Amino acid sequence: MLLQAWDTGQPSGVYNLGSGVAISHREIAEKAVSAARASQMRLDPEPIRVVPMPEALRGKFQFYTKAEGVLPWVAAITADPMEKMVRYWTEWAQGQVEDNRSHSGEDR
To answer: Rounded to an integer, what distance in angstroms lies between the CA atom of residue 64 and that of residue 73?
Structure first.
């Protein structure tokens, strides 16, 4: 992101680096679990726990993540956020599984 800003001559400043796509926290958690399971990571049978919303936060909490007011050049880079997250998590999880195998001697 920083290199893109530099290369295109964007003025220095603080930028909203979100994608502008609404994604629920539950959806993010489910995709992360799916990527971990696809990589054969060991997980609890029900790895996602739902915690009741504290009364003090009711009506104040956003149940999704979404950046607003994203600049067009930022939106172009951050497009398809879920696809990019799943790709990153899958690569990370596969690396973890491979590291665990090499440390336990399974690949010998």
So the answer is: 23
